[in-house]
Amino acid sequence: MSIGNCVHCSAKSEPCRHPVGTGPDWCPMNTHSQLVARAVELYDVPNTLELALEAARQEAAAYAHDRPEPAIAHPIRCRLEETLEFCHRMQARRVGLAFCVGLRHEAAIVSRLFEQHGIELCGVACKVGGVPKERLGLTDAEKVHVGEYETMCNPVLQALLLNEAGTDLNVMLGLCVGHDALFLQHVRSPTTVLAVKDRVTGHNPLAALYNYRSYYRRLGLPADSTAEGQEK
User: Fold this and answer.
1) Are 132 and 150 within 8 A, CB to CB?
2) DSSP H or E segment with residue 190
């Protein structure tokens, strides 16, 4: 059953953001009210409630509150700062870092920062295991470097090792598209993302969205397309 697409909501007063509001007929709050109620019940599960409370508190802490309302939101925390703070909020003493070997320098900085904050960091690189790509059934022509020996990225082993370490929380740093999905499929502890892999934009994939009318026209969007929030 379709759940609609919130991207297409044109309600002037969205029910998901205002106490009195009306959404379109296909709004999931109208068509899937039982799931809405079920989700609310799930927040009563202790570990889910703790995670949700600290996530909401972290969100508020990312803004300055020294101006009278109404005020323009004034962000004061970068994602790295927020990630460190969130680990403390969750009282995470052992944190797993699943990182790409291409970002080993960045991973080393993250490791030092976390350790300076009294957090034990368990870092696992994506090539752990040393398994050749042929094990997946890849042909030589499908490798990054044709004709050379290449080990596969092993997010499943990254997840299993961090599960074995008993991490309280995990952080992903620069895993490839698809490899991140595999990691999340097999990891047990809650996982957040510090950065995603984008080889072209310096790991800033939103750059392509912000330039879809110019440098990234090849994405195929019509020239007159608009995206709400484009200039944020």
Assistant:
1) yes
2) none
In the chain, the domains with their CATH numbers are 27-77 (no CATH), 94-197 (3.40.50), 200-232 (no CATH)
Q: How far apart are CA 63 and CA 202, in angstroms?
A: 26
Cα gap 126→47, rounded to integer Å: 28
55-102: pLDDT as tens digits: 999 999 998 877 666 556 788 999 999 999 999 999 999 999 999 999
Nearest to 162 by CA among 85, 92, 89: 92
Q: Which residue reads 């291409």 in tokens?
A: 102
Cα–Cα dist 94/207, whole Å? 33
Task: State how far the Cα of 101 lies from the Cα of 155, in Å rounded to an integer.
Answer: 12
Neighbours of 13 (CB within 10 A): 11
CA dihedral 67, 69, 71, 75 (to 10 degrees): 60
Give per-residue pLDDT as tens, 212-225.
888 888 888 765 55
Structure tokens at 221: 């969007």
CB neighbours of residue 122 within 10 Å: 17
Phi, psi for 100 (deg, rounded to 5): -85, 140
Whole-angstrom Cα distance, residue 88 to residue 117? Answer: 9
Q: Which amino acid is at 230?
A: Q
- pTM higher than the cut 0.70: yes
